[in-house]
Target: ZAD domain-containing protein
Amino acid sequence: MGSLDRAILTGFICRLCSEMHRIVIHIYGEEGIRLCISEKISRYLTINISRADPLPKTICKNCLERLEKQHKLVMVMENAANMLKGRKTRAAKSETKQ
Ligand SMILES: [Zn+2]
Model:
């Protein structure tokens, strides 16, 4: 196994889990921008990412999945909160179900 093979095998470091992956998504690449990865990271995580920092700008598929799950969860909860707020103003009764 030559050094080129090893370089291919090592792959890219994921910015979020710091593991090496052969398949990663570039945060500022076409897909990363389409998926709003940098916006989601800055919204849901406490880490700052910018194009100018010297750290990796790639994330693995596992972390992307986790980020998307978090996004969906927040969307569901925000929608629920808005719905409940709307309901509260209408003063509906909700003790009929059991
Ligand atoms: Zn990762």
Observations:
- The helical segments are 3-10, 30-34, 37-44, 61-90.
- Strands lie at 12-13, 20-21, 24-26, 58-60.
